[in-house]
Specification:
497 residues, 6-stranded antiparallel β-sheet, binds alpha-L-arabinofuranose
Length: 497
């Protein structure tokens, strides 16, 4: 089969906010304890962080990490996680039904993020708490000194404020499973009042209101409309969350799931713009896709877990090759709407539905999904270009008119590099791709990275990296045209300069 593309430097979708390559660490399973923090580990830093994990996080070039939840934040008292370790309470953590020892809290996480070269995206508890706890936490984190909470932070050994810019107003408050679940009216009012108070403490912050927990929520998209009707002038972003899985082993349909994701993004944009019109507002609302990933492999094991242990293995999905392909496709969905999707967090980062796995006391390794995430995070910086694409289409059990070639293009104006990301999502048919790079005539191939495997179910383990990229792709340029072979079910990064 054949596909054609045309790329022109003037077809700009928008500037890419690097924060679309964010991730997420929740106090859940072994994400924190045994993941980022393990004081007895051979690689532990003086603060108790695993250096091997930090090194892998840096390889991914993660610009922002959401913390501390997730569902967990809706029952979290931030005060439990600050001050002398010996005074920190062990609490029942109700979202995941574990014991939370609070060895890591706000200050430790801010220190970890700094070492990982990442910003913190902090979530406040709007489940069991509200305006007061949120404004106090912000004062604790960001106020320089001379007030009760800023001086408390200083007394805890953190003279410099953490200067956390991005704050989430709760988590998945539309979900009946959420502790302190609310109706859209209740949440909209509370989020707006919390936003107002937080802005009085620190007007420089950016705020994210909770959108729907996934596209299938019965209240979607009315939830967004009502929430934004209350909060439009006080918040900067509305959140989107979505996880996919392949429980029926229909890989053809699975690899087409991003068609749904694209529609989800378009519907949220339309809803934002509807409220903008109703309010006669000049402000544009942006999207924070702050939870996204594949999540289904571990669900059965988790349903059998005994409650109230400390940091048990939970949500430890072992990812296969087809999951990596879908993750690449999801990342391209953000690039396609880089004008409106300004933040996104791969949920999560270590051990819990994560690109990085660890063994307690043992090694850390890269899951299959590590690679497309790294490729797009490292090379997808600059402006997103809109390619004109002609591709074969096909039908699957669940979808019609699935484009065989999925692609996104990034031009980095500073380094003058052009990067073409591409997925041949067909399970049997190879594709010859021809790309007209008008406007980039003198460009030559720098590298053609390929992730391919003849077993879509292949996984990586601590001893065996079965799924990893190679750089033997055959892309070549001739008279302003790139040609490349994309074998069936394969992920590509073609870099030109
Ligand atoms: O990332 C795992 C969980 O998924 C988060 O805690 C929650 O927000 C979502 O339902």
């Amino acid at each position: 089969k054949k596909a054609n593309m045309a790329i022109d430097p003037s077809f700009v979708v928008g500037k890419i906010d690097p924060r679309i390559y964010g991730s997420f660490i929740e106090h859940l399973g072994r994400a924190v304890y045994g993941g980022v923090y393990e004081p007895d580990h051979a690689s532990a830093t003086k603060e108790g962080f695993r250096q091997d994990v930090l090194d892998l996080v840096k390889e991914l070039n993660v610009p922002i990490v959401r913390y501390p939840g997730g569902n967990m934040v809706s029952g979290y008292n931030w005060e439990d996680g600050v001050g002398p370790l010996k005074n920190r309470p062990k609490k029942l953590e109700l979202a995941w039904r574990v014991l939370e020892p609070n060895y890591v809290g706000t200050n430790e996480f801010a220190t970890w993020a700094k070492q990982a070269n990442a910003e913190v995206m902090m979530a406040v508890n709007l489940g069991t708490r509200g305006v007061d706890a949120a404004r106090n936490l912000l004062e604790y984190c960001n106020h320089p000194e001379g007030s009760y909470y800023s001086d408390l932070r200083i007394s805890h050994g953190y003279k410099q404020p953490h200067a956390i810019k991005t704050w989430c107003l709760g988590n998945e408050m539309d979900g009946p499973w959420q502790i302190g679940h609310k109706t859209a009216e209740e949440y909209g009012r509370l989020a707006n009042e919390t936003a107002k108070a937080m802005r009085l403490v620190d007007p420089s912050i950016e705020l994210v209101a909770c959108g729907s927990s996934n596209v299938d929520m019965p209240t979607f998209p009315e939830w967004e409309a009502t929430t934004l009707a209350h909060t439009y002038e006080e918040v900067d972003y509305i959140s989107l969350h979505q996880y996919y899985g392949n429980p029926t082993d229909d890989s053809a349909s699975y690899l087409a799931k991003t068609l749904e994701m694209d529609r989800f993004i378009e519907t949220v944009i339309a809803t934002c713009d509807y409220i903008k019109a109703k309010k006669r507002s000049k402000k544009t609302m942006y999207l924070s896709f702050d939870e996204w990933n594949v999540w289904y492999h571990s669900r059965e094991a988790d349903s059998k877990m005994e409650p109230w242990s400390v940091a048990p293995p939970q949500l430890e999905d072992v990812y296969n090759f087809e999951d990596a392909l879908l993750v690449g496709s999801m990342l391209m969905s953000f690039l396609k709407r880089a004008d409106r999707v300004k933040m996104a967090c791969l949920a999560q980062l270590v051990n819990v539905i994560a690109p990085i796995m660890t063994e307690n006391g043992g090694p850390a390794w890269r899951q299959t999904i590590f690679y497309p995430y790294m490729h797009v995070s490292v090379f997808g910086r600059g402006v997103s270009l809109q390619p004109v694409v002609k591709t074969p289409y096909y039908d699957t059990k669940a979808y019609t008119d699935v484009p065989q070639l999925d692609t996104a293009v990034v031009y980095n104006e500073e380094s003058e590099q052009l990067t073409i990301f591409g997925l041949n999502r067909h399970l049997e048919d190879d594709l010859t791709v021809t790309i007209d790079i008008r406007g980039f005539e003198s460009y030559q191939i720098k590298e053609h990275i390929v992730l391919e495997n003849n077993d879509v179910k292949a996984v990586n383990t601590k001893d065996d990296d079965r799924v990893k990229p190679h750089t033997n792709g055959n892309a070549k340029v001739d008279q302003g045209k790139v040609t490349a072979h994309f074998s069936s079910a394969s992920w590509h990064v073609i870099r030109l300069e």
